[in-house]
Amino acid sequence: MYVRDAKNREEVWLLDHIESMGLDDTAFRSRDYVVAVDEESGEKAGFGRIRIHKDHSGTETGESDDGDGTETGAAREEPAEVCELTSIGVLESWRGQGVGAHVVERLIEYASDEGFDTVYSLTGESAYLAQFGFRRIEESQLPAVLQERLSEKRDRTDPDAVALAIDVDQFRLPDRLREAFKRAPEGRSTASDDDSAEDFGIDPDSATYKYDTGQ
Predict the structure, then answer these.
(1) Range with the lowest mean pLDDT among 71-75, 138-142, 174-178, 198-202?
(2) Where do the DSSP E strands lie in 99-154?
(3) Which of 19, 93, 99, 160 could bridge to 46 as Cys pair (CB 3.0-4.6 Å)?
């Protein structure tokens, strides 16, 4: 089992499972996701997403100085970026085997590589994320853009969502989940990670499109 970046052709697969699990698909982009894949069969087992938000609440405007004391016009600071962990999903037959934990680990690594010190999550599954070091915080401690997102998420998909945060250097993966991931069951039905009809929104039983292609 390994975790890799999602492929563009997996957009339909991701959207299907996001919908069936009742997860958040706001501002969906397949390139924001990672996918857990069984290396023996090629079967996709789970997925998750890092979403980067622009937080304009701290943006300030002012007059810039050209060096001789003359103000040359308005200068605008770039809005801060904040990082959210969201839409973690594991297919039912793969649950309890550390798949979700390794998806979370890969996304935290990505956030760290991108220079983020803190990752936030807005979820009703706080107990699950707590085992990795996520802590609950007051809503007032969230960046303004995530305060708005928390309200929207409660209205749309997760009425029990609360605010969580973790310092990326505090992330920990419990040994039991690491070992479960290594021992993912063998002998599952053979699947392929190559293109399939369902990846492109085609129902293989009836050979009809499940999604409107506009053609």
Answers:
(1) 198-202
(2) 118-123, 135-136
(3) 99
Q: What is the CA radius of gyration of the chain?
A: 20
End-to-end CA distance of the chain: 38
Judge contact between 46 and 39, C-beta under 8 A: no
Contact 55, 77 (CB under 8 A): no
Residue of 83, 171, 165, 177 whose CA lies nearest to 132: 171
The rounded distance, in Å, linking the Cα atoms of 153 and 72 is 43
The answer to pTM > 0.90 is no
Report d(CA 137, CA 54) in Å as an integer. Answer: 20
